[in-house]
Design brief:
The longest helix has 27 residues. The chain has one domain. It is 81% helix and 0% strand. It is mainly alpha-helical. α5 packs antiparallel against α10.
Length: 252
Amino acid sequence: MWALLLGGALCAGWIDAVVGGGGLVLIPLLLIVFPELAPAKALASNKLAAIWGTATAAVLFVRRNGISPRLAATGFGMGALGASIGASLASAISADVMRPVVIVLMIAVGVFICAKPAFGRTIDAPAVRPDRRQLMIALGLVCVIGFYDGIFGPGTGMFLILSLSGVLATDFLSSATVAKVVNTATNLGALTVFALQGNVLWLLGLTLAVANVVGSVIGSKMTLKAGSGFVRYALLAVVVVMSVKLLIDQFG
């Protein structure tokens, strides 16, 4: 059982470091291994494991690519705020309502990436230094996506990368750097609310966090070495897998 869980946490950490979506691996795995576990506790424990891996990836990406201090600070705050609001409402909105919306968004994202092969592939883009207008739009999107992460979650990292690439006109790798910082904040905001609600299984989550960090380091180094082209293909792969998974959940 522990070998399965730790292997899943490592895989989830790798996926989150590359493009996001590790929760699609670890949350179902927790519910399979512990069928009596309430979904809220599985989601909360996944957040505890994921925040360590995402924070590790954020440090590695920022060291390599740099980031605008203003965007990092404000993005972190807005992401945490949006996620905490979303997490506080998570029990009030059914996943059956959210799932069809996300499926449509996933298909739209896949079509867009295929139709725009040059999008997000700028080589050697500088560190992100947005002007005021770009910053305001980016922060608004960060807050909305943070809310989504708290209330539902799948694909948060992917939505962040695509949104930031479009608004800030950067390559996928530079956007991924900002996304890791913001995703750490959204995990923290949601985790804080789940902890106050008493839904976090601390020993389980911290144990899985060790494997999650290992996977994150491996995924981060691969992504930083391979560049934006690798992130683009990873985005498409996540879109396909996530769409299939959500369709099965909706109609299976």
